[in-house]
Design goal:
Elements: H1 3-7, E1 12-15, E2 27-28, E3 34-35, H2 40-51, E4 55-59, H3 65-74, E5 78-80, H4 86-96, E6 104-108, H5 114-119, E7 122-125, H6 131-136, E8 139-140, H7 149-160, H8 164-172
Parallel strand pairs: 1-4, 1-6, 4-5, 6-7, 7-8
Antiparallel strand pairs: 2-3
Helix pairs in contact: 2-7
């Protein structure tokens, strides 16, 4: 399987949360509140995908108000929480948002993610995933969950589709006219 060829067809990236968008650790405060840390680079990677016409969704086994807040901030509307049977959750999502499985990527990190990873066109994982998941993934990030792995996956998909330059253009505008010290080069 050629991951780059599969990435060219992707129209929807689905993500697990704990271990993918977060480092997988569960943090609890003294008053029982749950805390999660999301990497800002992952958020921008999601925005880059969305701006280039690639939808992003969430399928996660846990339920969290923190995730509701983060998905609202990122404009992610396809969210299924509290579903340990992620394959059935995918079936539900496909009823309202039908796409061929070849056009869907899923990024997971542990055994509950394998049923979805086995079905979609592109199975992605993080650097610190379980060994079994690494064995079954088509592509593995060099960064761990909660450490920018989603951003890395986003850039991989965009590059495979020839959309990365367009996605980065507004951020790089004007930069090419500066040298490494920040001074503007003069052109005759």
């Amino acid at each position: 399987m050629n991951p780059e060829a599969a990435a060219r067809q992707i129209r929807l990236l689905l993500l697990d949360v704990d271990g993918v968008l977060t480092d997988g650790r569960l943090y609890y405060g003294n008053h029982g509140e749950e805390l999660k840390a999301f990497h800002i680079q992952d958020g921008l990677g999601i925005k880059l995908l969305q701006r280039q016409g690639i939808a992003v969704g969430i399928i996660t086994g846990r339920t969290s108000k923190l995730l509701e807040r983060r998905t609202a901030e990122l404009g992610i509307e396809l969210v299924i929480q509290g579903r340990e049977d992620k394959s059935n959750a995918l079936n539900e999502m496909l009823k309202t948002h039908p796409l061929p499985l070849e056009q869907i990527a899923f990024m997971g990190d542990d055994l509950p993610d394998l049923p979805v990873m086995a079905r979609v066109g592109l199975a992605l994982t993080v650097a610190n995933c379980s060994t079994t998941v690494a064995h079954h993934a088509h592509w593995q990030a060099t960064r761990g969950g909660g450490e920018g792995a989603v951003r890395e996956a986003a850039e991989f998909i965009l590059a495979a589709q020839g959309k990365l330059d367009a996605a980065l253009a507004s951020y790089l505008a004007g930069y090419s006219n500066k040298d490494r010290n920040g001074s503007v080069e003069s052109h005759p």
